[in-house]
From TrEMBL:
EC number, UniProt record: 2.4.2.3
Highest taxon of source: Bacteria
Name listed for the protein in its UniProt record: Uridine phosphorylase
Pfam short name (any one): PNP_UDP_1
Alphabetized SUPFAM superfamilies for the sequence: Purine and uridine phosphorylases
CDD domains recorded: NP-I_spr0068
PANTHER family linked: FI09636P-RELATED, URIDINE PHOSPHORYLASE
Catalytic reactions of this protein: uridine + phosphate = alpha-D-ribose 1-phosphate + uracil
Length: 256
């Protein structure tokens, strides 16, 4: 199968360095989220400036520098979908990023997981195509290998509850069938997203540090899908708190 045909040749036909130069002074630590609304609300609360621009086919991604005291943290609104998300992160690595805090919604497979609560993935089931170009074929990829205890300690110090477990990453949300969901739950998944396994594979391949977490949104069940707080305009105050946690952790992480 083509998906098992991993090629570890690090020189591709097109490489990030063919299109972009490193940017002097680019922030070593960058945060990103997928929600346009949450990202815009985060920017509104801090001094920021445009520090870079990049693009993926038919859309542009603006990278901002958020100034907090004497620190500057990079920030961008991540595109949805594994291939686009990974492509943009490749560019940021070339600019100079060394650490990434990435967060977004996920669907939960357990009704007891409360809306907008935090989930830290420990592994991702690889049901997308992008990760297979960065790591040999396998059922899953480890997530947050180095940052898990650090981020857990951060949340606990802020008295923020969380759950940890596997995530099912899929390219096709309209093909999340009941039978597939049952099999993923049997494999240990507690939630589902569209990018995590690919970004984790990229981090392992390129060697940057990754802190990836979710806040719970919709609930997938055998009876009926429950949209809950999936909409970008639902539960905004709680989502703002999640974004603030991500930024605060990024600031702590950037301190030598």
């Amino acid at each position: 199968m083509l998906l098992t045909e991993f090629d570890d040749n690090r020189q591709a036909i097109i490489n990030p360095q063919d299109l972009h130069e490193p940017i002097e002074g680019f922030p070593k630590v960058v945060i990103s989220c997928f929600s346009r609304v949450t990202f815009a609300r985060l920017l509104e609360n801090y001094d920021h400036e445009v520090i870079a621009r990049t693009s993926m086919a038919n859309f542009e991604v603006v990278v901002y520098g958020i100034t907090i005291g004497d620190q500057q943290i990079g920030a961008f609104n991540a595109p949805v979908g594994a291939a686009s998300c990974v492509g943009i992160i490749e560019d940021l690595i070339q600019f100079g990023m060394e650490k990434l805090v990435l967060f977004g919604t996920c669907g939960v497979l357990d009704r007891d997981i409360e809306a907008t609560s935090i989930i830290i993935p420990t592994a991702a089931l690889r049901d997308e195509g992008t990760s297979y170009h960065y790591l040999p074929a396998s059922d899953e990829v480890e997530v947050n290998k180095k940052t898990l205890p650090l981020f857990q300690a951060f949340l606990e110090s802020h008295k923020v509850s969380y759950q940890s477990g596997k995530v099912w990453t899929t390219d096709a949300p309209y093909r999340e069938t009941i039978d597939k969901m049952k099999r993923r739950k049997e494999a240990g998944a507690i939630c589902v997203d569209m990018e995590c396994s690919a970004v984790a594979a990229l981090a392992a391949y390129r060697g940057f540090e990754l802190c990836y977490f979710f806040y719970a949104a919709d609930h997938l069940s055998e009876e009926k899908w429950d949209i809950r707080t999936l909409s970008s305009h639902e539960d905004l105050d709680e989502k703002d708190k999640v974004a603030l946690l991500a930024l605060e952790f990024a600031c702590d992480w950037s301190t030598p």
